[in-house]
Design goal:
- The chain is of the alpha/beta class.
- The chain folds into 2 domains: 37 residues; 113 residues, no CATH class.
- It is built from 4 helices and 7 strands.
- The strands form 2 sheets. Strands 4-3-2-5-6 form a 5-stranded mixed sheet, covered by helices on one side. A two-stranded parallel sheet has the order 1-7.
- The relative contact order is 0.17.
Amino acid sequence: MRRRGFKKYLDNRSSAFKIQITSMVDMFVILLVFLLKSYSTSPVNITPNGQLRLPQSISPTDPVDVLKVIVSKKALFVEGQKVVDLDDGRLPASVTDARDPKFIRPLYGELDKRAGQEKNLAKVNDTVSFDGKVLMQIDKSLPYALIQKVMYTSMLAGYYDVKLAVMTKE
């Protein structure tokens, strides 16, 4: 008789003990949602070189993947390709137009070539369109007159939508 009671006790004990994981699953779902909401990733990778110091901002807007123009104290680049050498942030007189001193000829030539390539690609591929967007990384110590010339020249080449890359304040 004792054995029968012990077996009944084991059967009752195993059925009474069940792991309740509902609360644990709820906790993990809340953690997952929190982490997904707080984790921000941008498809655009902007890596300023050591010579370039970007201005700081509190703007929460992520950059978009468009044509990149970099203006440092030493040179002016379009998509990583050097277009114009600068002398401590000053343009040589030979690269500007005598009739229009705001116009930078080598920059216009490169931007116009790239705009033409994008427009030709847009004719062949319906998913691609030329929207005239450019992302500029400009050293914060450069004079406004130089920035104005770069922006003026890019607009003449068809890049009207200019975005400036900044570092976020921590």
